[in-house]
Amino acid sequence: MNWFRKLCKTRRVQVAALNIGVPCNAGLSAGNGIGLHETQGGRAPGIAVSRGMGFCRDSLRSFNRTRAVLVLFFGFLCTGLWAQTYPAKSIRLVVPFPAGGATDILARAVSQKLSERLGQSVVVDNKPGAGGSLGSDLAARATPDGYTLLLATTSTHTIGPAVNPRLPYDAFADFTAVAHVGNAPSIMLVPNSSPAQSVKEWIAYAKARPGQLNYASSGNGTIVQLTAELFKAQAGLFVVHIPYKGTALAIPDLVSGKIDVLFDSLPSGMPHVRDGRLRALGVTSAKRSPLAPDLPAISEVLPGYESNTWFGVFGPKGLPADIVARVNQAVNQTVADPEVRDKLARLGIEATGGSPAAFQALLKTEYDKWRRIIDERKITTD
Question: Alpha-carbon dihedral of residues 94, 100, 98, 231, nearest 10 degrees?
C-alpha cells in the first residue's frame, strides 16, 4: 500500500489503457487486466497487462466505460487519503511583525485553540521587516501543502500593495485566502478643549475653519492616515496632516490641544477616554462596536464610512481546496470559542470568521477603497 500512497501524494497516477481489450469469444484470461503506471515510468507491482488483436467493438466500449470508472475511483481515493492525513505534522503560522505587537498577540491567542481543532501544533513564527512584506513574501514562496500559513493584515494585503507597487509579492495572485479572523476598528479622539461634542459638530467646526485644524497619524501611508483621509473625503474637509512615529507619541499633543483629532485603535485610545484625558466622538466600524457600545458609529453621520484593520489567514497560491476547507473550519470554530473571543476583545478585535470566498471578496473591496483614496489624495510613504 505504501507505493500507492506515494503515487496519490505526488498525484501522478494514471490508468494505462493503450491497446488493452477483451477477446470477442473469450472471457478475461489470467493475463488480461488493467495496468497502473506513474507518469515518470515504472508499472505498479502485481498487475499484468495483456495486449492482443481481434478485439470486438462491444468489448472495447465496455472496457472504456470500466476504465473511466476506475480513473474516477482512483482520483477520489487519492483525494480522500490526502484529506484524511492533513495535518500530519506541526503547522508554521508566519507573523510578519515583531513579537509583542498586536498581530503577534492575536496569533498566540488563536494558535492554542487552533492546534486543538487541527490535532497538530500551530507554531507562531515571527518574520518581521519592511512593514510586513518580508514575512509575507516568505509565506508566498512556501510549498502549498498547508504546513506554512500566514497571519496577514490590512497593511500587508490591501494598503501596502495599494501604496507600494514595488512589493515582492502580489497580494492576490500569490496567496490563497483561507479565513477572516477579525476586525479592529478605531475611534475618533479629540482633546477635551474641543468645542465639538459629536461627529456632526466636529465636521461643522472643521468646515468653518478650512486648513486651520490638523490631525495626527502614525506615519505616511498607514491605516491611521488613510482612516483620517477617508473621513476628510466623505465629509468634504480640509484638515492638515501631521505625521508622528506612532500614535503613542501623538497622544500628549492631542491632550494638550496642539493636535485637533486622531483616529486611534480602541486598545490604545480608550484608556485615555476612561481616564478623562480625551473625548471619543465615534467608532470607525460600519455599525456600533460591541467593544465600545456607547460610541456611535461615524457612519451614522457619514453613510458608508468604514475603516477597520482586518486580520486573516492565508496560504500560498495553489493551496488544495480540501486543506483550505479544513483550516477555514478550524479557524471559524476557534474564533467562535468564548475564551478566544474574550481575548480578542481585550485586544480591540471583533472576532469574525466566515468563508474563504467572503474573505476574498472583502480583500478586493478593501483594496479598491484604499487605492482610490491613495490615488485621489496622492498619498505616498515618503
Answer: 100
> Is residue 24 scored above 60 in pLDDT?
no
91-183+308-377 and 186-300 share one CATH topology? yes
Find out whether 224 and 254 touch, Cβ atoms under 8 Å.
no
pLDDT tens by residue, 320-364: 999 999 999 999 999 999 999 999 999 999 999 999 999 999 999
Long-range contacts of 7-12 (CB under 8 A, 24+ apart): 7/36, 7/38, 7/44, 7/78, 8/77, 8/78, 8/81, 8/82, 9/81, 9/82, 10/38, 11/78, 12/38, 12/39, 12/40
Q: By the 8 A CB rule, do 257 and 231 touch?
A: no
Which of 47, 36, 48 lies closest to 12, judged by CA? Answer: 36
Contact 95, 151 (CB under 8 A): yes
Cβ-Cβ contacts under 8 Å for 71 (sequence gap 6 or more): 15
d(CA 103, CA 347): 10
Rounded mean pLDDT, 106-118: 96
Pick the CATH number of 186-300 from 3.20.20.140, 3.30.1330.100, 3.40.640.10, 3.40.190.10: 3.40.190.10
Confidence of residue 190 (pLDDT cuts 50, 70, 90): very high
CATH class of 91-183+308-377: alpha beta
Q: Where are the domains of the chain?
A: 2-85, 91-183+308-377, 186-300
pLDDT, mean over the chain = 84
Among 227, 266, 262, residue whose Cα is nearest residue 242: 262
pTM of the complete model: 0.77
